[in-house]
Each structure stands twice: as structure tokens, then as C-alpha cells.
Design goal:
Elements (H helix, E strand, L loop, with lengths): L1 H13 L5 H10 L1 H29 L4 H33 L9 H39 L5 H23 L4 H4 L4 H17 L3 H10 L4
Length: about 220
């Protein structure tokens, strides 16, 4: 939810693609909202580390090696997006930093600010490529487990395919980005389904005990 807030309610409302002047004006006019996007993303990343460990623990009985690989890809994705937040913050730093105006004109600062926002956007897609691989493995483990619904596992795998298609399209076929945007409803449905299932229903404890017992896991 925090990631959706940062993307839909902050960046989509502030950034005007291709218009550095309008984007700079929006940032300066809604600086608090812009910084709230940074806060939301940073909290999301901190939470994601804990979630990655939780999912590893949950799915380790199915296949420990694959669970470790999934953990690696998720933590790597988290690190990439965390470092990428510097590109996001650089946009407001250029516009507000007192020392930058002496070396650049206003138009140049606005253009540089938009460039960093574009880099942040591409960096986010790079992170989503890693997350897509994570989702493929995670979905497979869920589908193979006896204590979580197979349907949710397949949905998570579909989300992984969606992230890979969407992100690689951004890098390789940028003119087709608008055409593939609707497929992002798949990750929303899959992630919401997994979240609600774990919060409301949880794992099948009887089967969990059977699997952990047969795997020799205490």
C-alpha cells in the first residue's frame, strides 16, 4: 500500500513527463507531498526486509534452496530500490539546495531534476525485474506447498511474469509501455490475495506440521 501511495498519489500527481518546468513547479508547490513519497517508499523497504525473512521461514519446508534464492532476489531488489531513492531525493535537492543555483540556470536545474526523476523511474523498473524473478520462485513454492492455496501461487507467478514483461518493455520497447500498462492489475490482485489470505486465513496448521515434521524442521 505504501508503494502504491508513493507511485499513484505522489509521483503521478507531481511529475509531468517531458515537462521539466511543470514538474519543478509541482515539486516546489507540493514539497511536503513529494517528501512523503520518499518516506512511504523508505518505510515500505524496511518492511520488505522483514517480509522477505518471514516468507523464507514460511516456505523453507517446501524447498530450502529455492526459498533462499527467492530471499536473495527480494533482498537484492530492496537494496536496488533503496539506493535508487537517492535519485528521487536529488530532484528536490537540486531545486532547493542553495549552492546549485550558482552553477546552473533555473532551466538547467529543472531539467536535471527531471532527469533524476527519470533515472529513479528506470531504477525502479530494474528493481522490479529482480522482484519478478522473486515472484516466480515464490509462487512456485506456494503452489507446491500443502498449506497455502495453489491458486494464489499461480497468481504470484503470473505477477512475476507481469513485472518482467512490463519492466523489460520499458527498457527495450519504450513505445509500447502504454500498451502493457493494463497488465499491472495482475500483481495488484495477486499481492492483495496473498496478503489477505495470510492475515485472515493463515496457513493450514495441520499440513504445516506434517510438512515441517517430514522435513525434519523444528
Amino acid at each position: 500500500m505504501l508503494g502504491l501511495f508513493a507511485e499513484i498519489f505522489v509521483r503521478s500527481s507531481i511529475i509531468t513527463p517531458g515537462d521539466a518546468t511543470a514538474t519543478a513547479g509541482s515539486i516546489l508547490g507540493a514539497e511536503g507531498l513529494f517528501r512523503a513519497g520518499f518516506l512511504a517508499d523508505s518505510i515500505m523497504l524496511l518492511s520488505d526486509v522483514a517480509l522477505a525473512v518471514l516468507l523464507f521461514t514460511l516456505l523453507k519446508p517446501v524447498n530450502k534452496t529455492l526459498a533462499l534464492v527467492a530471499l536473495f532476489f527480494r533482498l537484492t531488489q530492496t537494496a536496488v530500490i533503496a539506493v535508487n531513492l537517492l535519485n528521487y531525493y536529488a530532484a528536490v535537492l537540486l531545486l532547493k539546495g542553495p549552492g546549485y543555483a550558482t552553477g546552473f540556470g533555473v532551466a538547467q536545474l529543472n531539467s536535471l531534476s527531471l532527469l533524476f526523476l527519470d533515472l529513479h523511474s528506470y531504477g525502479y523498473d530494474l528493481g522490479l525485474i529482480l522482484f519478478g524473478v522473486h515472484c516466480l520462485i515464490l509462487g512456485y513454492l506456494i503452489a507446491k506447498s500443502l498449506y497455502l492455496p495453489k491458486a494464489i501461487g499461480y497468481l504470484v507467478m503470473a505477477a512475476g511474469v507481469t513485472y518482467l514483461i512490463g519492466s523489460y518493455t520499458r527498457f527495450l520497447f519504450p513505445d509500447l509501455v502504454g500498451a502493457v500498462s493494463p497488465i499491472y492489475v495482475v500483481p495488484i490482485v495477486s499481492e492483495l490475495s496473498l496478503c489477505l489470505w495470510l492475515l485472515i486465513k493463515g496457513v493450514d496448521l495441520e499440513r504445516w506440521r506434517e510438512v515441517t515434521g517430514s522435513a525434519g524442521i523444528v
